[in-house]
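Troubleshooting log. The previous structure file for this entry was overwritten by mistake, so regenerating from the original sequence record. Sequence copied from the archived sheet and checked twice against the printout by T.R.
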Amino acid sequence: MSFPKLSWGREKHDLVDRWPKGPDGTPEKPAFLADSTEEDNAAGMTVEMLRAYGIPVMKKYDEKDGTLGKVLFGTPSGGVGLYVPESMLEDARNLLAPVEESTRNEEES
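Regenerated output below.
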């Protein structure tokens, strides 16, 4: 019997490998997706959901305290901006869009 390799919640640092590249090998430009917060781990859940669909996400912390608040306090005082590759922006927006009420009613019928 084989057991899964445990990672103990370590974050994977493979964003550069997963980010799409152009024909000349340069990384595609990031496009702003949304502002989020890390107080209730909303940003982390959004990043992992998009990752599950094959969409890489880059986090940019607020300029006020940058990553310093994350390092010192565990949660930055400002928000975090989420960026995805330009070519995947529409797909990412569709995945984060709320389900329309009419769609829910049709599914329940």
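Residues 79 and 89 are 20 Å apart (CA to CA). Archived copy saved in two places this time.
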